[in-house]
Amino acid sequence: MKWSGRRSSENFEDRRGMSSGGKTIIGGGIIGIIILLLNTFGGENVQMLTPILEQMNGGSGAPTEQRDLTAAEIEEGKFIEAILVDTEDVWGKIFQENNMQYERPNLVLFNQAVETECGNATSASGPFYCPADQKVYMDLTFFEELKTKFGAEGGDFATAYVIAHEIGHHVQTLLGTSAKMRQMQEGKSQAEANKLSVALELQADFYAGVWTHYNQKMNNFLEEGDIDEALSAAHAVGDDAIQSKIQGHIVPESFTHGTSAQRKAWFMKGYKSGDINQGDTFAEIR
């Protein structure tokens, strides 16, 4: 994708290379889905999955010392910042078109561990959005894990898709969708609550597609193969793909993010339509 030449964002924080210490809590993302399996099934699954979690967590409880960023890391930071700027421009325009004011979130890069208003997390969390401080947190080693352990193609637009998905959660926070979904989950069975979670995640994929649509019109930033990279990443993080890889079978009632097919379909619907009013993923579960 074409990304150079973007301006700097005031909402970008690069905490890589900073010192950290103490053990932290594993959070959401891909590992969060695996933890959901642990919590849901317990028993033999705990014994089966715990070594995998420990391996993927990579000993991130150990403290790290401050260091200088490498040239490659500096370039990675510039790329992430360029994507963040594009999300600011696109969502600022969309909100303005709908007579609303877009509040820009911060994006934080970190290594191994990070403290947030939603609690502490490790790199095993994968990228995540914290509504309490309205920040997206990312350890870029996640994308290597996505390729080597979950079979995604990789590529710069796979990264852009994941960022756009997390920014989609920020949009949901601003629109009140996330809070409404939490209220709807109250008093529901675990299976029904999971369906609502799936709807929220699929809508974030839809918003990632809408962002891609607008950004292409505004900046003509897509190159050949970019959409395929996004779809490959969406496929890799589908609940069915992850469950099949981790435990050898799928349990649909435990899904929290949607199947690979659903995630790809909603991203493409957002990309092709560019219309935020077509993203009612909750209608499918009514």
From TrEMBL:
One of its GO terms (molecular function) is metallopeptidase activity. Pfam families: Zn_peptidase (PF04228). The keyword Repeat does not apply. Keywords: Hydrolase, Membrane, Metalloprotease, Protease, Transmembrane, Transmembrane helix. The chain crosses the membrane at residues 21-41. One of its GO terms (cellular component) is membrane. One of its GO terms (biological process) is proteolysis. InterPro entries: Uncharacterised_pept_Zn_put (IPR007343). It is a single-pass membrane protein. It is found in: Membrane. Its main location: membrane. This is Metalloprotease.
